[in-house]
Amino acid sequence: MRSTIIHGPGDVRLETVADPAIAAPTDAIVRVIRTCVCGSDLWAYRGTEPTDQPHPIGHEFIGVVEETGTEVQGVGVGDFVIAPFANSDGTCANCTNGIYTSCTRGGFWGGLNRAGEQLGGAQAEFVRVPYADGTLVGLPEQPEPDTYASLLTLTDVMGTGHHAAVMANVSPGSTVVVVGDGAVGLCAVIAAKRLGAERIIAMSRHETRQSLAREFGATDVVAERGKEGVAHVKDLIGGGADCALECVGMKDSMSQALASLRPGGHLGFVGVPAGAPELPAGAIFSKNLRIGGGVAPVRGYITELLTDVTTGGINPGKVFDSTMKLDEVGEAYRAMDTRSAIKVMLQV
Amino acid sequence: MRSTIIHGPGDVRLETVADPAIAAPTDAIVRVIRTCVCGSDLWAYRGTEPTDQPHPIGHEFIGVVEETGTEVQGVGVGDFVIAPFANSDGTCANCTNGIYTSCTRGGFWGGLNRAGEQLGGAQAEFVRVPYADGTLVGLPEQPEPDTYASLLTLTDVMGTGHHAAVMANVSPGSTVVVVGDGAVGLCAVIAAKRLGAERIIAMSRHETRQSLAREFGATDVVAERGKEGVAHVKDLIGGGADCALECVGMKDSMSQALASLRPGGHLGFVGVPAGAPELPAGAIFSKNLRIGGGVAPVRGYITELLTDVTTGGINPGKVFDSTMKLDEVGEAYRAMDTRSAIKVMLQV
User: Fold this and answer.
1) Which CDD domains match (chains A, B) (predicted)?
2) Domain chopping of chain B, boundaries
């Protein structure tokens, strides 16, 4: 089969590799229908994260079950499935606590799982899925192709935006600031609206992203950054927001989000921390803030969000402003890297 | 009247100053019955926090209302009152949100309030209380003197320990680690038990504090610190605690608390951050932790905790292992500074 392999900065190649095969009775093989490139794939593509040796890449996919091990019960051959960006057994203490991304056996597609196995990458034709029952969510019927884009967001960006909103305690009537206008930030706007936020301020300087944010439910857009951005937020909603959703992971965006909060406000942060930013304990302490964040355990959110996707209540698939073929994967990375696309979907 | 004035490191003096008088119709004058020395008073006493000019000190007191301004309705002359460590108007947006310590007009005893007035210190015979209705909590009847110690803890340490437990989401069945065996840490043990924690691990190396922690509800005591401390905690409760209560404010104690948590765990931190420790975003992110902390808005907790004190359900006054007269205030600071006393109560 063909699988995307990263060799180093700027160097992703679609290569022919061995077809994956069932290795354990709890495995399934999934034929990938749609995959995509994630903002976090760019850390390796840009060299921010080192690539010590070539490895498969990509962690978001939807597809059809091709084969199952003898112990798989939750999904069957031919089922259309959503695969969250992390593999999880569904039974360990961390999965039981809802933190699927800290599964004691699972891991991330393209890397080693905690049980020590190399996992396949999602930017490929097939993926072997260990712990299929704990990982895959099957759809009751085959979806229409025009829902693929939104279904694909449930593997990562929509679940991650939702996690930011959950960690930030967004509830009916909340005032919310969303920092970050990438796919996750835009999905966080959807999530905030879905959870009943009354006021949603999207921080964005890019016109197309601003209009998508408004379409998704942002009531206001603030283009300024830094102190001017905070001042504008406070002009709009007085003493600061109830909730801030940090969807970037940089020091400046974190400061922006924290400074936008009112005393007693909540920060949800889901941007993968880049350059190990630290949270200022003194600033948090003086305002009695609550902070929560992490690698979104999206497996736990798929069922809830899927209902809204299938009824058309939310349409997060609009974050894909570009669609390419799998063999254009190199071009897809370049489009994401240069921000000429918000997010590129790949047809397999 | 006599009031304690700090002049610089190691230099607190009981001095004769003008009696306070009603200055606004919302003021009350309270005759102090009991006050005490707080761990946070030691920041100034030790010079960690500079004393630019001599000022009154002390922020914990209970007493009797001596006089009220014309607009005070909640308390009357002769009422026995509990004064939280912060002055608050009870009506601004932050008070309405329950963050009384961020009141837009109030402030801390001994310092300037946000309205610009110098507030008196609590280690004194009388205190003028601006915004008396928003600040003081009156008791329905005169309490017995043997409850004074516990009532006095409601002004700060018991409310602060409770805040740590609330911010850490302690709930029935929780496993809890309490870092810090000062008066706040010991009160946090009481708070965790009161909120239904099933397992409470007190981190303490001091025998008398260990036994008080056990008396207050600690099921286990861990004397080790650092990696050994974390390993011992995990020996006791597997993958880590549901909740960690940080009651010190140092970098090491914060690391200890964070490392003791399971993925998805909650940290409540109430130790005044010393030396501006920072919270590691990467470590929080990788474990999906939730962090909350700050200057405890104890005004909002007094009524709830008072019920348990008056029925004898909790007895936090035991943290006072020493009682002195107000004119021994210098000796009280020395006892706290050398840790020869957990907390010293002052009879006025």
Assistant:
1) FDH_like_ADH3
2) 2-156+298-347, 157-293
Q: Is B162 on the interface with A (CB under 8 A)?
A: no
Q: Which two tokens stand for residue B46?
A: 């030790």
How many Å apart are CA B218 and CA B197, to the nearest integer? 10
pLDDT digits (tens, 9 = 90+) for B234-283: 999 999 999 999 999 888 899 999 999 999 999 999 987 776 567 888 88
**At residue A275, does pLDDT exceed 70?**
no
Among chain B residues, CA nearest to A103: B263
In chain B the beta strands, taken as DSSP E runs, fall at: 2-8, 11-16, 28-36, 55-56, 61-68, 80-83, 86-87, 107-108, 126-129, 137-138, 175-179, 199-203, 220-222, 241-246, 261-269, 278-280, 290-293, 322-325, 344-347
b (16+ CB within 10 A) / e for B217-247: bbbbbbeebeeebbebbeeebebbbbbbbbb
Q: Chain B: give the shortest CA distance to residue A16, in Å.
A: 33
In terms of CA atoms, which chain A residue is nearest residue B277?
A281
Mutate to test the interface with A, among B285, B289, B299, B301 (most CBs of A within 10 A): B285
A126: which strand partners?
A: A31
Q: How far is A288 from chain B (nearest CA, A)?
A: 4
**Is B226 in CB contact (< 8 Å) with chain A?**
no
| Nearest CA-CA partner of B20 in B103, B128, B157 | B128
Classified by CATH at the fold level, domain A160-293 comes out as Rossmann fold (3.40.50)
Distance in angstroms (rounded) separating the CA atoms of residues B6 and B27: 25
Residue A204: count of CB within 10 angstroms of its CB: 25
**Backbone φ, ψ for residue A261 (5° rounding):** -85, 150
Give how far the C-alpha of residue B59 lies from the chain's centroid of Cα atoms, to the nearest Å: 10
CATH 3.40.50.720 applies to domain B157-293: yes
Average pLDDT over residues A141-170: 98
Nearest to A167 among B101, B280, B290 (CB): B290
Which residues on chain B are in Cβ contact (under 8 Å) with A244?
Answer: none
How far apart, in Å, are the Cα atoms of A162 and each of A241, B217, B287? 18, 38, 17
Asked, colleague to colleague, whether B2-156+298-347 and B157-293 share their fold, the answer is no
Enter the DSSP assignment of A184: H
Nearest to B97 among A264, A289, A292 (CB): A264
- Round to whole Å and give the CA distance between A220 and A222: 7
Q: Predicted confidence band at B187 (pLDDT cuts at 50, 70, 90)?
A: very high
Spell out the residues 6+ positions from residue A171 whose beta carbon is closer than 8 angstroms to its own: A195, A196
Q: What is the largest CA-CA distance in chain A?
A: 61
Taking CA–CA distances from A273, the nearest residue in chain B reads B282
Q: Using an 8 Å CB-CB cutoff, list chain B residues near A287.
A: 99, 102, 294
Work out the minimum CA distance from A284 to partner chain B, whole angstroms.
7
> Exposure of A73 by Cβ count < 10 A (0-12 exposed, 13-18 middle, 19+ buried)?
exposed
A289 part of contact set with chain B, CB < 8 Å: yes
The CATH superfamily assigned to B2-156+298-347 is Medium-chain alcohol dehydrogenases, catalytic domain (3.90.180.10)
Chain B closest-CA separation from residue A200 CA (Å): 19
Q: Are the beta carbons of B12 and B6 closer than 8 angstroms?
A: yes
